[in-house]
Design brief:
727 residues, alpha+beta, Ubiquitin-like (UB roll), Leucine-rich Repeat Variant, 4 domains, four-stranded mixed beta sheet, four-stranded antiparallel beta sheet, 11 strands, flat
Length: 727
């Protein structure tokens, strides 16, 4: 009879040896070498055990070639529905394939091994063996030397290089430093009749090179043979994968090239031919649902780079007192608004009056209004664009306010400066780009050469209208901008990730001040009338401990249930399909962890290994303070927001949560185990919700009654406790 501990060490595995089934019960602790040798001996296979390896048979759950290793061997368990094949070892396979590629000629045999290598190269064990044999250099030499003519062979060869580099075993600079190889890929991209499959793989390799390269000089050399016009023209192809990878490569280059080259690229991408291609082919409603999400994210990233390069520097630059161009723009604003001649000594007083009517705070020297950053000189550029491209609207706005004498005029210059700063905040110009999730680009921005300036033009008209509706004065400045922020943010939102399609649609979606005011009034009326009541505050303080214990138990249950955490590549990007699982034992004494790549199943505590005893935990590091993030200097700032590291006497458990709630729950849970107070945003929010619910339940009979402003005074105790009952 097998006791429980022995049964836990066993698992059933379904092997397939040369097509023959072999169902065995094996020990989980048995080394793979020993297991392979047993299978070789039992089935009288030629050679020795080291000539073979085990692989997961391709099926519904296993999509790619994957070798069984000591780390993942427990996934052989038949309960997961996997079948295991005995096949040639990676070393023998790589040697055989390289021999055929180096010595053979074009024909079925070379095509066969290329297809085999393309299939196997996604596995890290094969990649390590291939790099050890210096096979990557051989493949790159074959590509740059045009050794293959069949399209299928070229595609397999390029896919192999992309898959090998995606393993991040060696630096991407190995690609960018080989100029002949890069030139060959560039010719594939720059040639009009290149097969789409070849294009897809060439683009993927260049994306990996652009994102993974650390040498700025090699990035510049690698970018030079690529014609940006050709990359943009690929966006007009009907193949969604080519469109997506072309746009992804453009974004990768914008992220990696030097500032001067980035400015040139942004200038070209902002011109009408490029915008027309984007509008006609990437903003089309005919894009399939499969590609719409990834394409929307790349469009958001492209727009972020364009706006950042076009306006961020100007937004953070003060005006120079001797900047003749800026001074001329200020003079042009006055002359356009009031149709007066150039200033002279005799009419300087008149000019000061004009600048005051324009809404400048410093009418004697208007340049001083642009010394604050943000918005810096960008505000002047926007005002100048408004005056020169929408002259009638500009004149109407300025004269309408400058002629008012009832203290209700809207100061054009001062309000424009504040408005430009507000629009920069709404669009996230000076913030890092979002890594994923609910990103939103503005479709209307791709239809205009100067999108931000045009956006400002429409918003300043909205501001002026709202100012009049509110009958505001300068004392109401902040109130007006609170309303304008609400108007703009709501109008930019849409059912899709693209926002309004045109600026006219944006203007039509802006809600009036009356609508905003009604909404705010409704929100105010729905607020808890007892929120500021002193007796209720006392009751909440009394209930606090009970609610904290409830949340604490929820955090324990969450950790006992366990969580799947992301794993990172060396460049800081998330590894797709690879996770680790972390669980707290039900007795709250041990943390268990292990690799777990099954998305639809949850491991039991027996499937994981005990990693850290709770009593050994010293502290928890969170966010950017995590030491392990230093190993990923290119990690996105969004990832660092959900990172935490559990520090123990024998090491640490480093995790990247997939969302902020998971991060907060684990942070609270570990702090609770350490005897510390919970302090996450989710804890504070849940505590407030539960407290309010409990108070409402307890005061249900008092609903509609007005509670006293202060808690009733507790009377002093009686002088003695000698009570008696009178009959």
């Amino acid at each position: 009879m097998i006791d429980g501990s022995q049964a836990d060490d066993k698992m059933k595995v379904a092997f397939s040896i040369n097509g023959n089934p072999d169902l065995r019960v094996i020990s989980k602790s048995q080394p793979l070498k020993s297991l392979i040798q047993e299978l070789v001996d039992h089935h009288n296979m030629p050679g020795i055990g080291e000539d073979y390896c085990l692989i997961f048979q391709k099926g519904n759950k296993i999509k790619d070639y994957r070798i069984v290793t000591e780390k993942n061997k427990e996934e052989m368990n038949a309960k997961y529905g996997n079948v295991i094949d005995l096949t040639e070892s990676p070393e023998k396979s790589v040697n055989r394939i390289l021999t055929v590629l180096k010595t053979g000629t074009d024909g079925p045999e070379r095509s066969k091994v290329l297809a085999e290598l393309s299939r196997m190269s996604v596995d890290q064990t094969v990649a390590l063996e291939f790099f050890a044999k210096k096979g990557l250099g051989d493949l790159m030499l074959m590509i740059s030397g045009d050794k293959f003519q069949q399209t299928a062979d070229i595609v397999n060869l390029l896919h192999t290089v992309a898959a090998l580099m995606d393993q991040e075993i060696i630096s991407a600079d190995n690609l960018t430093n080989d100029q002949s190889f890069i030139d060959r890929l560039a010719r594939y991209i720059n040639t009009a009749n290149t097969d789409p499959a070849v294009l897809e793989q060439s683009l993927q390799i260049l994306i990996i090179a652009a994102r993974g390269g650390v040498n700025s000089e090699s990035i510049d050399n690698f970018e030079r043979p690529l014609a940006l016009t050709n990359l943009v023209s690929l966006l007009s192809r009907n193949q969604c994968t080519v469109q997506l990878r072309s746009l992804r490569l453009i974004n990768s280059l914008l992220q990696s090239v030097n500032p001067r080259r980035k400015s040139d690229m942004v200038r070209m991408l902002s011109e009408k031919p490029s915008r027309t291609i984007i509008k006609d082919h990437l903003l089309s409603p005919n894009i399939s649902e499969e590609f719409r999400g990834p394409l929307d994210f790349e469009l958001y990233t492209l727009q972020y780079h364009i706006l950042q390069r076009q306006i961020r520097d100007r937004m953070l630059t003060k005006i120079e007192p001797q900047d003749s161009l800026a001074l001329q723009k200020i003079k042009d604003l006055r002359s356009t608004a009031f149709d007066t001649e150039s200033p002279n000594v005799k009419n300087n007083t008149r000019y000061s009056q004009d600048y005051k009517k324009l809404g400048f705070t410093n009418e004697k020297d208007p340049t001083l209004d642009f010394m604050t950053v943000p918005p810096g000189v960008l505000a002047l550029d926007c005002m100048d664009y408004f005056a020169k491209n929408h002259t009638d609207e500009f004149t109407k706005v300025v004269l309408e306010n400058s002629c008012r004498m009832d203290n209700h005029e809207c100061p054009f210059a001062a309000s424009s400066i504040e408005l430009v700063k507000l629009l920069g905040e709404i669009l996230g110009i000076d913030s890092p780009p979002l890594s994923a999730g609910n990103v939103r680009y503005q479709e209307m921005f791709f239809k205009c050469e100067h999108p931000f300036e045009e956006f400002y033009t429409h918003c300043v008209i909205i501001l002026n209208k709202t100012w009049k509706e509110m009958r505001a004065t300068r004392e109401d400045f902040k109130k007006v901008f609170d309303v304008v922020r609400e108007q703009v943010e709501k109008a930019l939102q849409g059912k899709t990730n693209s926002g309004p399609k045109t600026f006219d649609e944006f203007r039509n979606k802006v809600r009036s001040y009356t609508d905003i005011s009604k909404k705010w009034q409704k929100d105010a009326n729905s607020k808890d009338p007892w929120k500021e009541s002193e007796p209720v505050k006392v009751l909440k303080a009394h209930l606090c401990h009970e609610i904290e214990e409830l949340i604490q138990q929820q955090r324990y249950s969450f950790m006992v249930e366990g969580t799947r955490f992301q794993k990172l590549k060396k460049n800081g990007e998330v590894l797709k399909g690879q996770y680790k699982y972390l669980k707290l034992h039900p007795n709250h004494k041990t943390l268990y962890s292990g690799e777990w790549n099954h998305e639809k199943t949850v491991p039991t505590i027996e499937d994981l290994e005990p990693k850290v005893q709770v009593q050994d935990i010293k502290d928890i590091q969170i966010g950017g303070n995590c030491t392990f993030l230093k190993e990923y200097p290119k990690a996105n700032s969004e990832l660092s927001r959900t990172a935490f590291s559990i520090l123990a006497e024998n090491g640490s458990l480093d995790c990247i949560a997939q969302d902020e709630q998971t991060f907060n729950y684990w942070q609270d849970g570990i702090n609770t185990l350490l005897g510390k107070r919970m302090a996450s945003g989710d804890y504070l929010k849940e505590k407030e919700i539960l407290l309010n619910m409990e108070v409402k339940l307890r005061l249900l009979d008092l609903e509609g009654m007005e509670l006293p402003a202060s808690a009733p005074v507790i009377p002093p105790p009686p002088p003695n406790l000698n009570f008696s009952l009178n009959n």
